[in-house]
Design brief:
Blueprint (H helix, E strand, L loop, with lengths): L2 H9 L9 H15 L7 H12 L12 H15 L1
Length: 82
C-alpha cells in the first residue's frame, strides 16, 4: 500500500479538513493504514500527498484558503501520531 492509498479514505472527501465525526472516522482509518506501511512517511511526503489529492476536490464551506499551509499542519499532526 502506498501513502496515497493509505490516506485515500480521508482525502477522498471534500470535507477532509473538518472535525465532523464522519470525517474523523475516515481520518482514523487513514491513520491505521499509514501505521501498517513498512516505512513511516516523512512530513514532506505526507504534505505533498495531501496537497496533490485535495487540490482536485471541490471547495466546501470552511475549506482552508491556504491549502499548502493546512496540508503542512495536517502532515505534522499525522507524522507525530505515527
Amino acid at each position: 500500500m502506498s501513502i496515497e492509498e493509505a490516506l485515500e479514505p480521508w482525502l477522498s472527501k471534500p470535507t477532509w479538513f473538518s472535525s465532523h465525526p464522519s470525517d474523523q472516522k475516515q481520518f482514523s482509518l487513514a491513520m491505521r493504514q499509514l501505521k501498517q506501511l513498512s516505512v513511516s512517511p516523512s512530513v514532506e511526503e505526507l504534505e505533498q500527498v495531501i496537497i496533490r489529492r485535495v487540490e482536485a476536490l471541490p471547495a466546501m464551506l470552511g475549506t482552508p484558503s491556504d491549502i499548502p499551509a493546512a496540508a503542512r499542519q495536517f502532515a505534522i499532526k499525522i507524522h507525530a501520531k505515527l
